[in-house]
Amino acid sequence: MERMIETRSAQETWQAGYEMGQEAVPGQVITLIGDLGVGKTVFTQGFAAGLGVQDSVNSPTFTILQVYEDGRIPLYHFDVYRIGDSEEMLEVGWDEYVSGNGVCLIEWADLIEDLIEELPPEIVTGVKIEKDLQKGFDYRRITVS
Question: Quick check: 21 and 51 in contact, CB under 8 A?
Fold first, then answer.
């Protein structure tokens, strides 16, 4: 089942992430896809807050993975923008995290589609964030599937 959320500010995008974080369950994998500057990190910050994470959440572009354990369940935040191939994901312990007791949120998940496709579909929630400049600079269409 697919649902669409329309936001018209960074705060509303953050709120959409927050609400999804409140509903997150252990073992869930959130795949986050969208162009540069579309609001993936803002959504992720809201998601983390929805889990109860108190730490400052930023995009882990240069480290691939940030682990936040101060929420109600651990958050494993991947940013795979700079990886060369899926092998790098295996090197950082991909298997341990996706089968762990937390929730994985993966920015730029389309770059590791082969690994995502190997996961049981019932644990994967896709989130696609898109701009539509005809509807305004801050407009975002968030599709959850």
Answer: yes
Question: For residue 40, which of 128, 122, 136, 103 has the smallest C-alpha distance?
Answer: 128
pTM score above 0.70 = yes
Query: Hey, what domains does the chain have and what are their CATH numbers?
Result: 3-144 (3.40.50.300)
Helices (H), the chain: 10-23, 40-51, 86-91, 94-98, 113-117
State pLDDT tens for residues 110-133.
999 999 999 999 999 999 999 999
Q: What is the DSSP letter of 123?
A: G
- For 22-39, what is each residue's pLDDT tens digit? 999 999 999 999 999 999
